[in-house]
Amino acid sequence: MIVGVMAFAPSIALSCETLKPGLKGRVVEVTDGDTVVLDSGEKIRLIGMQAPKLPLGRVGFKKWPLADEAQAFLHEFAYGENARVYYGGARKDRHGRVLGHLFVNDDKSKWAQQAVIEAGLARVYSFDDNRHCLADLLDAERKARAERKGVWDHAYYAIRDGHKPQKLEQREGHYELVEGRIFGVGDTAHRVYLNFGRDWKTDFTAVIDRRAVKHFTALGIDLRELDDALVRIRGWIDVDDGPRIDVTHPEQIEVLALR
Predict the structure, then answer these.
(1) Does domain 12-152 have CATH number 2.40.50.90?
(2) Are the C-beta atoms of 154 and 148 separated by less than 8 Å?
(3) Class of CATH domain 159-257
(4) Helix (H, G, I), strand (E, B), or coil: what is residue 61?
(5) Is 191 in contact with 210 (CB distance < 8 Å)?
(6) Torsions phi, psi of 17, nearest 5?
(7) How many CB atoms lie within 10 A of CB 257?
(8) What pLDDT, on the 0 to 100 scale, is given for residue 59?
(9) Backbone CA torsion sign across 247, 250, 252, 255
(10) Confidence label for 144 from pLDDT (cuts 50, 70 and 90)
(11) Which of 12, 13, 115, 219 is the most buried (most CB within 10 A)?
(12) Which residue pairs from 221-225 have beta carbons closer than 8 angstroms and sit at least 24 positions apart in sequence?
């Protein structure tokens, strides 16, 4: 049993204390488990987490398990309340939604993201241009997982085995947490590869583009030192010479044990 879990911790500059205050308004709609609408008409995507998805009019989209429960929880938490958005990086996405952390009544103890994740109704989900508060959110996720709350007691969201590539290929297009021991670290001119087996054409791989390596370097992390480490990787499963996850920032990797 692994007792200690060490994520690549964000620097102090990426803590919640450095969030920038933004929009205020009353929550008049809860679209799903991670999206609300303010009375100003602005749609707010709660950054730092991903709740189970609803179809929301998308033809052929199958609702994820516990999507209704996540929406209901956020509705109970935030609907009709005055709230404030705080920014931690990019402020809008390509859909025009505002990206931020939501606090009810501008109260830091009433943080929507933390509440939903602690309830086990969302997983931590981050971007390289929006990395604030992730240490706190990962802590909340670990507590919910230890107590088998919500998604952590459902097979759809089970942590996947990094040494079973054929099963991982079946999860192509899904956001997953994958655990395993790194067999070797490949270092080329364009990418760093964390290989989970001998055959790079079939085995699972975490791929870090050279542009992303700078985020690791800034934290003093040498990716080559992860050789033989037991890790958990989070991200979207793609299949290209075996299943893979593109890693764009350090918080996608949790180190469970070093060699």
Answers:
(1) yes
(2) no
(3) mainly beta
(4) coil
(5) yes
(6) -65, -20
(7) 14
(8) 81
(9) positive
(10) very high
(11) 115
(12) 221/8, 221/250, 223/185, 223/187, 223/192, 223/194, 224/185, 224/187, 225/258
pLDDT of residue 61: 85
Instruction: Give the whole-angstrom CA distance, residue 218 versus residue 228.
Output: 23
Count Cα atoms within 13 angstroms, Cβ side, for 90: 16
- Determine the Cα–Cα distance for residues 110 and 115; give it in Å rounded to an integer: 8
CA angle 145, 248, 205 (to 5 degrees): 75
Q: Convert the pLDDT of each residue in 23-71 to its tens digit.
A: 999 999 999 999 999 999 999 999 999 999 999 888 888 999 999 999 9
Provide the pLDDT for residue 129.
Answer: 92
Q: Does residue 115 contact residue 109 with C-beta atoms inside 8 Å?
A: no
Supply the pLDDT for residue 7.
57
DSSP letter (8 states) at residue 39 = T
Quick check: do 12-152 and 159-257 share a fold? yes
- In our burial notation (b when 16+ CB lie closer than 10 A, e otherwise), range 91-111 reads beeeeebbbbbbbbeeeeebb
Tokens of 84: 């404030």
Which pLDDT does position 6 carry in this prediction? 55
Distance, CA of 248 to CA of 210 (rounded, Å): 9
Instruction: Report which of 24, 37, 30 is spatially closest to residue 85, judged by C-alpha positions.
Output: 24
The first and second tokens of residue 239, run together, are 């299949």
Q: CB of 250 within 8 A of CB of 195?
A: no
Query: What are the residue boundaries of the structural domains of the chain, listed by start?
Result: 12-152, 159-257
Gap between the Cα atoms of 207 and 242, Å rounded: 12
For residue 48 the two structure tokens come to 């730092």
